[in-house]
Structures are given as C-alpha cells and as structure tokens.
From TrEMBL:
Lineage: Bacteria, Pseudomonadati, Planctomycetota, Planctomycetia, Pirellulales
Alphabetically ordered keywords of this record: Signal
Domain of life of the organism encoding this protein: Bacteria
Signal peptide: 1-25
Organism encoding this protein: Botrimarina colliarenosi
Name of the protein described by the UniProt record: Nickel uptake substrate-specific transmembrane region
Length: 468
C-alpha cells in the first residue's frame, strides 16, 4: 500500500554538470523486464515521480544517489555505491533486496535541471534522533512523492582580477561534500581517477570550468549544503558559498597571500624540520576544499609559501618525523590577502594572565597550564608519542610550571608558546593533594611576529568550580 505526500519544491541552487542527455515524455511507458532500480523491494520506503516543474511532463533518465549521516559542517554523506539511473520517470527506493538507511535523503539529477533533494526520510523502526521535518515511513508501505525539477538557466558570470580586469583562463569549480577540490600553486585540482573508474567515482568529480578570453564562465546550479564556488587565477583567489554566488554577474578575486615563517623550537632556530602547512581558507571547509603544503625549513629555520589562500592556517610537524614528536607543536595563524604574513612557529612564547574571582581568600590556590593529551579514542600509541614529545627538548618549551595565585586573585605565566592549552585552578589541601577550584578554560592563540610576543594574553575571570 502506498500513501501520497505533496512536498514543496526546494530552493534553487547550482546543478552539477552531467554527461547524460535531457529526455522528457508526456506518457511514461514501462520497460520490460524492469531493471533492478525499478523493481519493488519488500522494504520499500518511497516512490518518487520525477516531473518538469514548468510543463508537468515526466522526466526520464534521472540519476539518483542517496545521502546519509548529515553534518552541519559538510552536509549529507553521499553514498556512491547507491548511485543508479532509471530508464523511466519513477524512482523507487530502496532497490530490490535492500532495506535503505535509518535516515536518508534522495538526490535526483536530470541534465539541464536544478537537482532535487527530498526531505529526510526515516524508517519507522529507527530509534535514533531524526530532524523535525523527516518523514517516518514503514518498510513495505512506501509513500509517493513528486520530485519537481526546475530548468537550470546557467547565466553567464564574469571572473575579475583584483584590479577589476577580466581574469581570462581562470579556473572555477563547485566544491561540496564528496566532490573535493584541491588548491595547488595557483590552480585547482581534483583527485586522480583510476584507469577504469566506477560510476560513483565519476560522480564524485567536481564540476569545473575555465573563464574565456573575456573572463566569462557558466556554472550549473547546486543545492548541496555548504557547497561553495571556488576560483583560482595567477592574480588571485575567490571562495564564496553558493547562496552568495547566485544572482551575481561578477566574481572578483582577492590577491594571494605570502607566508614568511620561521620555526623556533626549544628556543633555537629549527633547521631541516618538515612542516605540514594546512591553509584552511576563511570558510574552513576541510572535508572537500584544502590547500596543503609540505615545507622543509632552511639552516635558519625559515620557510616561505607563495600563493597562499587568505584565512586560517594550521602548522604542525609531520607525524612520525620523528615518531616521538607526533604532530606537535600544533599552531595556527591568519594569512592576509596580498602582501606578506610573518609567522613564527614555536617561538619564545608570550605572557598569559588571568584572575580568580568570587572568593574572600586566595591563599593556597595555584594555576596550571597544560597541553591536552590525545583522546583515549586514539589508543596507547598516540599517548606514548605525546608523552615522548613532552619529555623532548622541544616539548620542554610547552611545559609550564604551576604558578601561585596572588592575594588579589591574579596569576601570570611568563612564556607560553602558541599551541592549544587548558588552564585549571586548584587548591592545595592539607595533605598536599590538588582539589579543583576553578572552572577550566581552554584557549589557544595565533602565531605572532617575534616583535609582538611581549603582549600578554588575558584569559579573563575564572569562577569557582561547582561540582555537578
């Protein structure tokens, strides 16, 4: 038994270019024998009728993929093994001999049209938390939905250099979850395909195009959560969410950044150290857009990176080189567009201050500042490497001696090197044990030019700890 539900058309977004042709028909004819994608599963959840939103005509030849495990940072995880094509205009999910997922969305693509996503669909027997707009469906009692697809107009957009002139030859792509774009040098790259790629591997290739001699280009509409338009040219770089890209007839690049850095570990310039420089852009979309650069410091511990994307940068040592150091120290900074950004990896550290409030007497209180160790989830190997780092000559710069809280509640650590720390306030009991007395504060601070290391970092007030 099937039930019918009418759903509103999702908002427009840019569709991935497809290699299949457009085909619509006023009257759908069944195919004999039916393909696996068109057979009913005893666990069927949904029957989806694909329709032109303007003409009401059925659309044949849709390509379908299912997404699960939604994340606010990257959207739905598209399961490439679920990719299939239907000959007619009716999509049935799950396919024969499949049960579907506890929670899923169905993405429908027809060339020349904006993609369509169903609302989340969950099995009625699912016990996990589901979104409020999810449809609960009993396996074997599928609901009937309409996927109303709108034609994609694909307007022309002009890519401009930072000075406003056309960026002829610039690359433009759409990056989204499962469609990864890498920034290398001054260009955009996608993952390499095997000699005989599977359909899912082809689907995961991002849409990419090149601006013509006038700087003009066209992209299809995409509606995936946190999808972005990224552009690269010898003169600069651009990155915008697709929602901000729509309706504009221009996309202007900003200049590349340049990093001049120096590694100072254990108080001395660190020569011949391999560093992982992860340029995360301003939007920090790590799962499907990245610029990763491996550098080796010179005899003075210096390194340089040209054509760096503006925004957040994370720097760490290469894991296993040497093993006992794992990936510490891990520090971050901000790369500005145009000009040179100076960064010191490690360095001599800066003062960190704070104050305990809400007490009549601060005698017997101490403050500790420590690097948080690896999560227990990572197992003993990571913990041993972290312990090895903390015992090393480099790790010594990241070990802070506990300090006494002054009579007015203030405390001060003199030289704290950039990293990720937590600060705790303790009271020393009569038998010498520590008793937590202040709310833990986690903090980090960016890499700074050496000239700014004397500026104290104020962590603010620490209130008394109240056990739950």
């Amino acid at each position: 038994m099937k039930s019918s539900v009418s759903l509103p058309l999702p908002g427009l977004a840019w569709l991935a270019l497809l290699s299949m042709g457009i085909e619509s028909a006023a009257n759908e004819q069944p195919t004999e024998p039916p393909s696996r994608a068109e057979q009913w599963s005893p666990h069927a959840l949904v029957e989806l009728h694909v329709i032109d939103a303007q003409t009401e005509a059925p659309l044949k030849g849709a390509r379908v993929i299912v997404g699960t495990s939604f994340s606010s940072s990257r959207g739905w995880n598209w399961q490439d093994h679920t990719l299939f094509k239907v000959d007619g205009s009716v999509v049935r999910w799950p396919r024969a001999d499949e049960k579907g997922y506890q929670l899923q969305v169905i993405r429908v693509e027809v060339p020349g049209y904006v993609p369509y996503h169903t609302v989340p669909i969950t099995r009625a027997d699912s016990e996990r938390h589901v979104p409020e707009d999810a449809l609960r469906v009993v396996n074997g009692e599928p609901i009937c939905l309409e996927a109303r697809l709108s034609p994609d107009q694909m307007p022309t957009v002009r890519l401009l250099q930072p000075d406003g002139t056309p960026a002829s030859g610039g690359q433009v792509a759409i990056a989204m979850n499962q469609r990864e774009v890498r920034i290398e040098g001054r260009g955009l790259h996608t993952r390499d395909l095997p000699p005989k790629p599977k359909p899912g591997e082809l689907w995961e290739q991002p849409v990419m195009t090149t601006a013509d001699e006038h700087g003009d280009f066209r992209l299809p509409v995409e509606i995936a959560h946190r999808a972005v338009v990224v552009a690269a040219h010898e003169s600069g770089f651009a990155l915008v969410p697709v929602e901000e890209f729509y309706g504009n007839n221009q996309l202007q690049l900003e200049p590349w950044g340049t990093i001049h850095g120096q590694a100072i570990l254990g108080g001395e310039p660190a020569a011949d150290v391999r560093l992982r420089v992860h340029l995360r852009t301003r939007l920090m979309i790590d799962d499907y857009l990245e610029q990763l650069v491996i550098v080796t410091t010179d005899h003075e511990g210096r390194f340089a990176i040209e054509h760096a994307t503006p925004g957040l940068v994370n720097i760490s040592t290469i894991p296993d080189l040497p093993k006992e150091m794992d990936s510490h120290p891990r520090t971050h900074g901000l790369v500005k567009a145009g000009g040179v950004t100076e960064l010191v990896y490690g360095g001599i550290g800066r003062p960190v201050v704070g104050r305990v409030v809400g007490l009549d007497d601060y005698e017997g209180l101490i403050a500790t500042c420590e690097l948080p160790g690896p999560s227990w989830r990572y197992g003993g190997k990571s913990n041993r490497r972290f312990a090895g780092f903390m015992r090393s000559a480099v790790g010594e710069a990241y070990r802070q001696t506990p300090v006494e809280v002054a009579a007015d509640g203030t405390f001060r650590f003199e030289r704290v090197s950039p990293e990720f720390y937590h600060v705790d306030i303790w009271r020393i009991t009569a038998n010498g044990d520590r008793e937590r007395h202040g709310v833990r504060r986690q903090f980090s601070f960016p890499m700074l030019p050496q000239s700014e290391n004397d500026l104290p970092l104020d962590l603010g007030d620490f209130k008394p700890y109240e056990p739950r």
